[in-house]
């Protein structure tokens, strides 16, 4: 059944100083308060003696209550054709406010009138739910096509968190508090096997990661011709973004919704990226020690040169996640330091001639991924 005010949308042309978001917030507040205000009015009206008009008091109140509620419904009905994902949270809050207020509002009406009001509320709620499912479909499409405003025209630079990753996980964080309403709305289907908040988050993360896998981060000019540096940067980029997704999922409280094995699979994925990064960046450095038939002095010199080059290319990269930063440092150290220490032990005459001791290498590797902080610390020394 269509709403009685189907074509009677609220016009906001006379309130240009308000944004749609401002008006929605005011509407939500009014929706929360109207039942209480009408209940007080009803008690006050019944407590007063109006003489010959007493028999009209109930009809008078019913008319005021119905008109008040229909004003709220008319406003909400004006947003039932909205499909822009940017308005998703606002319209979702409207749905929640109306749904939560409905029981209290219906208690105000007599049996003869409650059915009419209830029917109109159900129509608006159904239309809001339909609009929300369309917005969710649009959000999924945005992530898949990477055409959201925050990422349009942007490319991955360096190894930081991609704008699309931030956008997707910000959406997840904003939707998380509305799990109950979303589960109810999505139970009727939004396509893509999305039937709950958990399945929505899973689809968003999967779509995001498919896009990230296709990205090759832009490198500095010094790295353009270095295949190993490009591979290392790509794995570092993927590890950074995978770690960010995992951390934001925990912060948003949606990790339990993704299944028992999700956290473990996420950890394994990050570990693979870390291992691939170390293999691409630091394994070639350690391999310099495996040169057979060459003089130890030349081997040590080649190793030192390769280490310095790799170190300089990595020390200014910034990894904001402390856990990932430590995992990368530990993996790099385990790849390089034991091999170097063993080589020096096998060639004790080199101890006084090498540029770095094994301990110094370890210290340098644990300085990696501080970004600008590394440069500031260097200037202070």
Automatic annotation (TrEMBL):
Q: Where is the Exocyst complex subunit Exo70 C-terminal domain?
A: 25-365
Q: Which organism is it from?
A: Oryza sativa subsp. japonica (Rice)
Q: Which GO terms describe its cellular component?
A: exocyst
In UniProt terms, what function does this protein have?
A: Component of the exocyst complex.
**How is this protein named in the record?**
Exocyst subunit Exo70 family protein
Q: Which UniProt keywords apply?
A: Exocytosis, Protein transport, Transport
Q: Which Pfam families match?
A: Exo70_C
* Gene3D superfamilies membership: Exocyst complex component Exo70
Spell out the SUPFAM superfamilies in the cross-references: Cullin repeat-like
Quote the PANTHER family the UniProt record gives: EXOCYST COMPLEX PROTEIN EXO70 (PTHR12542), EXOCYST SUBUNIT EXO70 FAMILY PROTEIN (PTHR12542:SF25)
């Amino acid at each position: 059944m269509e709403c009685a005010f189907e074509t009677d949308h609220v016009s906001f042309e006379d309130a240009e100083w308000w944004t749609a978001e401002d008006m929605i917030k005011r509407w939500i507040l009014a929706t929360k308060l109207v039942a209480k205000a009408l209940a007080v009015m009803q008690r006050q009206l019944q407590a007063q003696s109006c003489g010959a008009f007493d028999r009209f008091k109930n009809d008078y109140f019913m008319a005021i209550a119905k008109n008040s509620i229909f004003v709220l419904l008319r406003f909400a009905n004006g947003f039932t054709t909205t499909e822009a994902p940017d308005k998703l949270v606002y319209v979702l809050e409207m749905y929640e406010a109306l749904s939560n207020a409905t029981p209290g509002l219906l208690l105000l009406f007599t049996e003869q009138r409650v059915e009419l009001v209830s029917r109109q509320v159900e129509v608006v709620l159904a239309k809001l739910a339909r609009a929300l499912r369309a917005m969710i479909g649009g959000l999924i499409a945005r992530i898949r096509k990477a055409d959201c405003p925050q990422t349009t025209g942007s490319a991955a630079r360096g190894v930081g968190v991609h704008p699309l990753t931030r956008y997707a996980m910000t959406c997840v964080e904003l939707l998380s508090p509305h799990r109950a309403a979303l589960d109810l709305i999505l139970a009727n289907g939004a396509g893509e096997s999305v039937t709950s908040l958990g399945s929505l988050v899973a689809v968003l993360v999967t779509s995001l990661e498919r896009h990230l896998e296709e990205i090759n981060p832009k490198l500095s000019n010094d790295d353009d011709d270095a295949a190993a540096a490009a591979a290392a940067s790509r794995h570092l980029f993927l590890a950074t973004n995978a770690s960010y997704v995992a951390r934001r999922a925990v912060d948003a409280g949606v990790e339990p919704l993704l299944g028992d094995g999700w956290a473990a699979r996420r950890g394994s994925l990050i570990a693979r990226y870390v291992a691939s990064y170390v293999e691409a960046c630091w394994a070639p450095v350690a391999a310099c020690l495996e040169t057979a038939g060459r003089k130890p002095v030349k081997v040590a010199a080649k190793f030192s040169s390769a280490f310095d080059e790799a170190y300089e290319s990595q020390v200014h990269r910034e990894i904001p996640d402390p856990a990932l930063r430590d995992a990368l440092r530990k993996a790099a150290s385990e790849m390089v330091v034991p091999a170097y220490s063993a080589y020096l032990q096998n060639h004790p005459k080199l101890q006084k001639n090498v540029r770095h001791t094994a301990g110094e290498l370890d210290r340098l590797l644990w300085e990696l991924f501080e970004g600008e902080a590394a440069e500031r610390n260097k200037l202070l020394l």
